[in-house]
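Risk register update: the risk of archive-format incompatibility is retired. Evidence:
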Amino acid sequence: MSELAPAYDPAQVEDRLYRRWTERGDYCADPTSPKPPYSIVIPPPNVTGILTLGHVLNNTIQDILARRARLQGKEVLWLPGTDHAGIATQTVVERTLKKEGSIRHRDDLGREPFLKEIWKWKEKHGGIIIQQLKKLGASCDWSRERFTMDATYSTCVQQVFVDLYQKKLIYRGRRMVNWCPVSRTALSDEEVIMKEQKGLLYHFRVAVSGEKDRFLTIATTRPETIPGDTAIAVNPKDSRYAALIGKQAVRPLPPELPESQRLIPIVGDEHVDMQFGTGVLKVTPAHDPADFAIAQRHQLSSLEVIDASGLMTALAGKQLQGLDRSKARTASVEQLKELGLLEKEEPYMNQVGYSERADVPIEPRLSEQWFLRYPSAEKSRSIVSSSTLRFFPERWTKVYDHWMENLQDWCISRQLWWGHRIPVWYRGDEVRCQIESPGDGWVQDPDVLDTWFSSWLWPFATMGWPEKTPELKKFYPTTDLVTGPDIIFFWVARMIMAGFEYMGELPFRNVYFTGLIRDGKGRKLSKSLGNSPDPLDLISKYGADGLRFGLLRIAPQGADIRYDEKQMEEGRNFANKLWNACRFRQQQGPSDPAADPSRHARTPFADYLLLQLDRLEQDLERLYQGYEFSQVAQTLYTFVWDEFCSRFIETAKADFTNPDSPTRMGTLATADFVLSHILRLLHPFMPFITEELWLTLGLGKTTIQFAAWPKTGEVQFDAANARIAESSYATAEAGRRLRGEFGLSGSSKMKFLLKPAPQFQPTSDDLRTLAKLLQVGSVESTSTPPKAPMSLTPWGELYLPLTGLLDPVQESARIHKEIAATEASRAREVAKLADPKMVAKAPAEKQVEWRRLEQEASEKITRLHEQLKLFTT
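Archived output:
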């Protein structure tokens, strides 16, 4: 058996072990296995992506679930893959080609040559994030890796389109859509990010035709769209304007048109907000969803004055034609000024929709698009509200239900080249929907499907649907899904509907939503802010296990995470602590993989550790049931660091150094038994170090990955014996608190005195053990206690003689100073409570806090005065 190195070096362990695991096929799922199944599909990262801390968090949680399931004896399929990411990938490749000087626009190449460039880019760069996930230790079945543009997957996507088309759930229509002028494609509402913008509200006048000197003032944030106005709308209930309904107004732009061509009707519509601006609304049907609805109700025409690239069209007039829409805004305001029709400009905060990918304002635009009426919507809504499918945290259930209650048809077409091309063919007026080409003379629809139209099929399409594969029979529906709440509508809801429509049941049983990782100032992590660390750098510094464990400890369920690199360092320190504890055990002799503490005489400290292990395993079972991964990590940390290392190992040294001790074998057996449990319980979080320790210590002959998960209630211990150790630890804790009150740390020069309780007579071994726990030179028994600080403990009165430890004059001055500061703090809280105005304004919980602070200050002052007596008499 090889010896453990003096220090743990992740670089010497991680690549070696991961290569062994994957080459051996440890993660290849067997659909013919008699084991109960556990399955989870990875949320496919964009093929353009690189690893972020968000990926680390999400995939570590998935790995925890998969590794624990293997330890529980289940046949595990963790299915990986990547998404073709239509807009993102096309944008990246087009930008690269432009930078190289190869093209000015993709049209320069043409569709097929451009797609070849994307495939070349994908083959060269597309696997980066997969390799990074392997560095993290992700135990995916890489033999089943999928890509949403694989030939078989593409056929599956097109087959679903044809089926839904035939069911008349897919249709083509001219609708107002969100348009990205950079990507030049339609976007769904979920792909639009609302941002608060500081803008201007422009007040301009329009003349009422046939009424001399009668003008209407209109307030707008978009004067560049005035040339596209085809009506003026007022509320028929608005007494200021009701009499004007049915008349005409003169649209001011473009001014070069004769007035007869600029006349537009004044219509009455109850949807006009009488309180906004002046209560008069310009109606631009081609460039505003609300205006489009008004136009539909009043049979108004539409004028497109902004084209697909965000440039002004000829209909906008000679002075605006060809201008970018932002520049056209400035130019149109100047036109209004020249015409004497601009009344004023005023600052205005409004919400502007931005393209999620291109990060530019979207343009509402009338466009011919393909739409889907969602299938299986009612089943998909009730499955969550009935708790058949569970969300963690549960609060996302209401968010999901609200969205499902207000479903809007899904715009599934995109004006891109990279993606699944819509399987619809045209020849003259003829239309066919089929996967294969109908033959000569038929032209395929140029649009592709929204990326999410492929990923909503992910749980079953990745397992070979529409064929009835062994994988689908064994592993569908999947067990868990781990994802972010930002795609609850994009992906989660749609997968549920697709699962019911094509598999007849839900696609997963539990959904865990991760939190958002922010920096210490509460900002989202991003490259532009320089606050987003590279996970590979963190792995290099702290090891994959250190990163995984450190991040999970600060990731409470359902809450955003405040990233702190010190926690990653803590993860590494914890790994080192575990390594050193195992190395210390190895130095005592060979480990026994079949260690059974119940066969040996044991110290109270061994039984206490076994009692705590039993409680630990019960706590972990409860926490896993609630998907409380952060609390699982913290509970394991506390047990290993405090119970095993700080307490048990310190007390075990007496047995380890005494070959003749009657409890030595029991202590060794307890150490091996508990370490065997610790390593298995920690393995899902820290796979590398636990495997290395498991094999090197000889606690198992083969990999830890398939060792049995510890079952609750099987640890045997003597509760009465454990209570003796509990009293020892409580006594030591009281001594540490006593020492801390004087700002003293442990030292070999320090000693405590114990006046034993009547029912307790400590042995010399007991006193030596207590001294070790207190990290002091000695603890001595006495019947004549000194004048010294004392704490009442389970063992009796514990005294701390201060002679030689503190200078009486200096300590007296320090205590006087602390009393003054504490009295000042108490006075502040008393003043707040005595001020009627402050009490009236403060919420009840704040007043409770003030009273608590006053009480704590009063108690501290009392203690300080007691301490002062030790130095002034």
